[in-house]
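job 3f2a | input accepted
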Amino acid sequence: MIYVVIAFLYLSILLYILFGGADFGAGIIELTSGGKVRTQVRTLTYKTIGPIWEANHMWLIIVIVILFVGFPAIYSILSVHLHIPLLLMLFGIIGRGTAFIFRHYDAVKDDMQQVYNFIFTYSSFITPLFLGIIAGSLLAGNIDPEAQTFSEGYIWTWINYFSFAVGLFTVSICGFLAAIYLTGETKDEAMKTVFIRKSRLFNITTVTTGGLVFIAAEIEGLKLMRELISQPVTLTALIAATLSLILLWQFLKRRSKVRIRLTAGFQITMILFAVSYLYFPDFVVTSNGDNLSLLDAAANKGPVDGLGWALIMGSLFILPALFYLIYKFQKENTRETV
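job 3f2a | predicted structure (338 res):
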């Protein structure tokens, strides 16, 4: 049952990046647009993610519950030594959510709309930035469970080149996914052209920041690139992600909605799979070499088995309803044009 729980953990992380990341990316797209385009992006974003944006945080909640119940030692290290970036990420989630609601449902349309827009767009950038910083910090090897000073225990654990590079990479992924997703949500050919151009731009940005991750890893002494290409499975995943770039640009040229989304999702999945496979079963890399493994740091058999069955049974009830919700609003959106 432990492997069922681990599978749900990694699947939830992947789905949060693919779906929740696209939601954050919508704000990033709005932030990097101007004039009339920004207004159109704002309108399309609301019609597209308005009904389901809150549901996408379900994947993050599942990750937290799995770590809390199934891997308490990992949850403790994460919530203690990385509490500052976690808090900043939560501020971003809260600020983005409240601003998203207020700017659409505020009874009075006044200058506060500008405040709501500011909070929404910059929170959409800050949240994935710190999400990536947290992910990078888990692998950077700077967490010291026996740290004696505040800076060693809570500051230098996440302030380093590698963690910030992963943060920028995550922001780029979110912008890329949002541009890909919004390309298929508008029937206006002019806006479709805008989103295709942004898809290509953010794809280039993703590749560039991905390169920065490898450079930062070398600076920090992680040897990430050499380890990835030294294993057949991870090397194959990286090659598949790279080759999918060619297909993606061809599908963008043809404006093939379904193929664009599937290729982009495959590309991101391969990248995450390569890194996850490389470090598995370790989830937290510590400075003293005593890494926290998902197998060794798991709770007792009773809680893990109970958690596994809860995840299986819960998915049978929740996932069909969630997919129906997405389908229903997608069907409604196809009747409208932007």
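job 3f2a | The radius of gyration is 20 Å.
job 3f2a | closed
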